[in-house]
Specification:
Length: about 250
């Protein structure tokens, strides 16, 4: 592997770390860089998951002010996410690659639409006084499964889910999203490190880039107004979905 290829991987990690922290979908920027470095799709997928962990940790640390007072909430939400994450990582290691390929873009587009329509959907949900915790938990299990299996744009889907079922500022929910999606990736990364064919050189280079990018993304993301954040995440998500539809 050439120095130029490793430099491209490091740069992709930096950008992916920032994008993951602000919006989500950064893994779709680093994944092609790993393919370009000569890794096959399965090795690139598991290496991508392991390599982006430092960026998510840096993003969560950068959002520590927004995370204050959310400890109990995060512990409660982490359980169904962890269950789904273990299931998703297991599926990736046992099922043929590409099982979710045709479904993923539509999931992302649906999440973008839900995020754009969040204020209206919240009003509709508020008119029905049922318990929101059950659908939230079910969505977190499915999100964890998706994140453990593939994970592209998990942050976008997760932010839309949290915004629909939890009444809080979007910046605080975005911080929670970074922690929860990072937790799922840690679960998958441990499984891949033990059982998967990780390319550790690329994972290290990618991790160094994502570490810087994650901290930078938190610095930028916390200064974006809520409405601009909502629209920006939706636009990024739509771009990711279109890319997956055109270049699956």
């Amino acid at each position: 592997m050439t120095g130029l290829q490793l430099g491209v991987v490091a740069g992709a990690g930096l950008v992916a770390g920032a994008v993951n922290t602000i919006a989500g979908g950064g893994s779709l920027l680093s994944f092609p860089a790993l393919l370009g470095a000569g890794l096959n799709p399965l090795v690139a997928n598991v290496t991508n998951t392991d390599g982006l962990i430092p960026g998510q940790a840096a993003g969560a640390q950068g959002y520590r002010a927004e995370l204050r007072g959310q400890r109990q909430r995060l512990l409660r939400l982490a359980v169904p996410m962890a269950v789904g994450g273990v299931a998703g990582a297991t599926l990736l290691l046992t099922l043929p690659p590409g099982v979710f390929r045709h479904v993923v873009p539509w999931l992302i587009l649906a999440s973008c639409l839900a995020l754009l329509l969040q204020p209206r959907l919240l009003r509709v949900l508020g008119e029905h006084h049922g318990d929101r915790s059950a659908p939230l938990r079910a969505g977190l299990v499915l999100g964890g499964m998706y994140g453990g299996y593939f994970g592209a744009a998990l942050g976008i889907m997760l932010l839309a889910l949290l915004a629909l079922f939890i009444d809080d500022r979007l910046q605080r929910l975005n911080a929670a999203k970074v922690v929860l999606s990072g937790m799922v990736n840690v679960i998958a990364a441990v499984a891949f490190a033990i059982f998967g064919p990780v390319n550790w050189l690329c994972a290290l280079v990618l991790g160094c880039g994502s570490l810087v990018g994650g901290r930078l993304g938190a610095h930028i993301g916390r200064r974006i107004p809520a409405e601009a954040l909502r629209v920006g995440v939706a636009v990024v998500g739509a771009g990711v979905a279109v890319k997956l539809l055109v270049f699956p």
